TrEMBL record, chains A, B:
The keyword Metal-binding does not apply. Gene3D superfamilies: Winged helix-like DNA-binding domain superfamily/Winged helix DNA-binding domain. InterPro entries: HTH_MarR-typ, Tscrpt_reg_MarR-type_CS, WH-like_DNA-bd_sf, WH_DNA-bd_sf. Signal peptide: none annotated. GO terms for molecular function: DNA binding; DNA-binding transcription factor activity. Keywords: DNA-binding, Transcription, Transcription regulation. Residues 23-158 form the HTH marR-type domain. This is DNA-binding transcriptional regulator, MarR family. It comes from Pseudovibrio denitrificans. PANTHER family: TRANSCRIPTIONAL REGULATOR, MARR, TRANSCRIPTIONAL REPRESSOR OF EMRAB OPERON.
Length: 166, 166
DNA sequence: GAGGAATTACTTGATATCAAGATACTTGAC
DNA sequence: GTCAAGTATCTTGATATCAAGTAATTCCTC
């Protein structure tokens, strides 16, 4: 039995024996699993009329607690995106009445993005489904694998953030 | 010490105690690490004038062995993308002289995408750097973590493919 | 064989993203 | 206080992607 990535590595080996393609066992599999996860998660968000990125903004506001307001820069940093991308997301969410832009009294360059009541209700409903779906997805892993994976990813993430890489 | 995802989970817990956000320890960390990896890998491809997806097509052709030719459908399946996306990638690669479209003698609906000599030379150069960079990236993991991760992702990937999910 | 179902590559229109730069504002060095 | 440097948001133009649909061809069932 072999998966897509195993076949790819085998092909490289037979074509190009001087190169070590083994990092792909980790990185290419991660990438493919991640693509699959993202597709499934975004199918759930679509039921609420949201793209993954829209949910991400609303969820970031919601979990920041009262008064459910952050600056665009904070949202941008949290999402690993560029400022232009965040601007267009906010345009869309504002048009849908899920957030509103207010002036920021502390810094006239900045804004405050407020979650509206409608936005809050929607994100809470979507988040409940989202967490349930994530839990479901992890059930294909054996409990000990899931636990080990949690530890490994935690260490990996820490080191990347320590290095300032993220 | 805590990373971005740990802070996010803590926020959810304090705002929304009835929900179990713990799957995010696995899924959100995977997503963020993956985003970081993709950014670094695509910076390497850019040195060769390629986007990640362009490299993916050229590499799939190269490792398929002589005569370095596949049908668009095979490339599409391998990449987890839609056929329209593959069409536009092939347009671009053809314009750059890295692949060429030839009629497929066995099926007049289909084509054969051939890697040109120029395409082959480029992908071999880019691939060498790519593999070196991937190996470098995995050095932040302890050897036992890397080994464990390889096993876990292999099992995960197998199960998803078994289910027909990928 | 004939005819309907499936497959193949492509087209179209919409959206998401980025890099680079513009504009307005704040901060800090002197 | 002044001004250069930095910061915050948005704009612009380019690209990548997708979903849905099209036309030509092949496959399958009878």
């Amino acid at each position: 039995m072999s998966d897509h990535v195993a076949r790819v590595v085998r092909q490289w080996k037979s074509e190009y024996s001087e190169v070590d393609a083994s990092p792909m066992y980790v990185l290419a599999r991660m990438m493919r699993i991640n693509m699959k996860i993202n597709k499934d998660l975004s199918a759930n968000f679509a039921k609420f009329g949201l793209a993954t990125g829209d949910f991400d903004v609303l969820a970031t506001l919601r979990r920041s607690g009262e008064p459910y307001a952050l600056r665009p820069t904070e949202l941008t940093k949290s999402s690993m995106l560029t400022s232009g991308t965040m601007t267009s997301r906010l345009d869309k969410l504002e048009k849908l009445g899920l957030v509103c832009r207010n002036p920021n009294p502390e810094d006239r360059r900045a804004l405050m993005i407020h979650l509206t009541d409608k936005g809050r209700a929607l994100v809470e409903e979507a988040a409940a489904k989202h967490f349930a779906l994530e839990a479901e997805m992890l059930k294909v892993l054996d409990p000990q694998d899931r636990e080990a994976l949690e530890g490994i990813l935690e260490r990996w993430s820490h080191r990347l953030e320590e290095e300032g890489a993220m």
